[in-house]
């Protein structure tokens, strides 16, 4: 039995310019939710100043270029034609990519969509010829850390190219996963 159209889920690459407004809106939702969570877990820590500045719409818009082809990908998740999530990949070094902004609206969670977006981002990384994918998450995001661990990533220290300021590293966990090579080398 097929799902009714109003329930159909699609994960697709966001089209530059055409999808920019919804991409920016989802990134801002993600960042605002992250800031709220950090504030709950670390009240009065002073670490919110740098995070709040990351919600500047102009900075987000300018930053989209780093996630576009040929150096990255932005994926949109839609259910019944409505945007419900996002995931992004960017190149941060020779043969190294970074997954960022994996976010699902609350009504789209617990359906396996985070895992599906993560898998698709890894496939995109492989198609770009990347050998390693890295990511980070706030230590208080237990659900995200569980998803990352089940996706074959291993913990590592902070890495070159991370956007997380050094004074926040103690509150973040950094991960890495090697990808199978398509270059014919063992």
TrEMBL record:
Name listed for the protein in its UniProt record: GNAT family N-acetyltransferase
Residues spanning the membrane: none
Keyword Lyase: no
Domain N-acetyltransferase: 33-175
Key words of the record: Acyltransferase, Transferase
Lineage top rank: taxon: Bacteria
Keyword Transferase (UniProt): yes
Pfam families linked: Acetyltransf_1
């Amino acid at each position: 039995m097929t799902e009714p159209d109003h329930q159909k889920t699609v994960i697709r690459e966001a089209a530059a310019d055409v999808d920019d407004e919804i991409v920016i809106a989802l990134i801002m939702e993600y960042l605002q939710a992250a800031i709220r969570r950090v504030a709950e877990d670390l009240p009065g820590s002073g670490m919110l100043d740098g995070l709040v500045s990351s919600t500047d719409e102009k900075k987000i818009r300018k930053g989209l270029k780093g996630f576009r082809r040929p150096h990255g990908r932005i994926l949109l998740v839609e259910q019944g034609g409505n945007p419900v999530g996002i995931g992004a990949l960017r190149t941060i070094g020779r043969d190294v990519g970074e997954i960022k902004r994996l976010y699902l609206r609350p009504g789209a969670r617990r359906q396996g969509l985070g895992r599906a977006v993560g898998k698709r981002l890894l496939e995109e990384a492989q198609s770009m010829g990347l050998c390693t994918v890295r990511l980070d998450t706030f230590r208080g995001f237990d659900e995200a850390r569980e998803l990352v661990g089940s996706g074959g990533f291993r913990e590592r220290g902070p890495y070159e190219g991370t956007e997380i300021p050094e004074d926040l590293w103690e509150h973040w966990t950094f991960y890495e996963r090697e990808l199978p090579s398509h270059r014919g080398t063992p």
